[in-house]
Amino acid sequence: MRRSTTSVTTVILAITLAVALAACSGAGDDGDEASTDVVSGGTFVKSIAGDPGDLNPMQAVTFDTWEVIGMAYEALVYVNPDGELEPWLAEEWTETGTEVVFTLKDGITCADGTPFTAETAAANLAYNTDPANATFYYGSQVTEAVTATADGNTLTVTSAANDPFLVANVGTILMVCDTGLTDPTALSETTDGTGLFPLTEAEPGASYRFTRRDDYTWGPDGVTSDTEGQPDAVELRVIGDESTAANLLLSGEINASSISGADRVRVDAAGLEFAGVRNPVGEIMFNERADRAVADPLVREALATAIDRDEVGTVIADGEAIPSVSLVVRNPLLCVPDEAGWTLPETSLERAGELLDQAGWALAEDRLRYKDGEPLTVKFIYDAPTPTHAPAAELVKQTWDQLGVTTELSANDAAAWSEQLYQTFDWDTGWVQVAPGGPVVLSTFFAGATPDEGGLNFMFVDNPEYEALVAQAKEASPEQTCDLWQQAEAELIERFDVFPVADNILPTYMSGATFEMPNFIMPTTIRMLG
């Protein structure tokens, strides 16, 4: 692989986990019907909003990183757009609550030609279950309670504790080949996986290019290197401006782009189809460190109660708000109910003022609130590249101004997110989202260690009721666990540790190509159109 730069900045930003739900599709009512004839060859080009940074799949946490590594790495099982588990590197499996036995497909090789075996898969699990390696998967999908052994093509995974999600947790871990496991530091700038499209050229901040292998035979649904309609190459192009991406999409220069702001109107008018994933765009988090005003649950409740969810939700979801039903939005959608199991407060400025009074924040003659001579100041952060975040934040500020709250708006890029959430902790609340595929991953953010202790609980949440339910859910039977997890999630909402204003569907539009998008674009499903 040729790389134009020798290093990239590692962006440790666990908050921007991959957001997804079952893929939806749609098209505008106008415009010519696109060709459905597949044509092999060419380059499939997709825009990404930012540079992925560190490419190590065992440390990946940002949206853009997951998009890049998803082209080159694969897992034992494939989660389809409906959240169902299908064979991938494993052709079949059997399971109990404490054991799963995978049978790997024959003939799997890495991009460098070396075999990928059950022993390699076992070595991956051994690496991820070692707390000293501090991988993304440790604590969220596996712990040292999980062990693995290999015998020929058979991988046996055992958990010392009951785990009703064992197949999903183990099966969706991206697998690294032996060379990468021997020297994980090398994975920061290259890829070492079994994927159909290994990384062959990288220009950080500009472009990442992948070239199709000619020896691939083990894809989901029988996909091989010879399957008709596949591109010769894939390029993920860094395009930070959404209007520019829309222009390139409409001109046919790129084949796919996520468009969520004002430019969506003209893209829809062109009749382009899209794959959609559920996006918790209006999720509000709070920094509950003892030195922050929002550490007081009365203050959090007051701020949340003052927000007009219909008005703000319409803005932040660009007119297409849908109610949140779960904090779990990524495939495989473990324990997601049909309807939310929580109750959100009725909007009331009067009630919000009463709550602030109870919290000791008195309204002074200058119409601002003070406590012990200090004004109630709230720093509200949001994602600068998300086009709806700024206007929605302005609406929230206007509302809180009426309460006497001094609201400071702060637009963040990726580096600022990392610094504020994991280093300086200089924030109070804002449009901050996590998007896990299951409740166990969710719990690492709300019941796990804080960043100063090496954990992901960047909100510094200490919710004993939630933690008790999490402990029960982890020990429960498969029939009982989801009910307990949903009760635990409700505790987070009702204590105002998190406040879901609105979700929406984030569309990734297609131009001259089709694909499946269960979480991110699935490379083996890309088909070029003539």
From TrEMBL:
Keywords: Signal, Transport. Residues 1-22 form the signal peptide. Transmembrane segments: none annotated. GO terms for biological process: peptide transport. GO terms for cellular component: ATP-binding cassette (ABC) transporter complex; periplasmic space. GO terms for molecular function: peptide transmembrane transporter activity. Residues 84-447 form the Solute-binding protein family domain. Pfam families: SBP_bac_5. Belongs to the bacterial solute-binding protein 5 family. This is Peptide/nickel transport system substrate-binding protein. It comes from Jiangella alkaliphila.
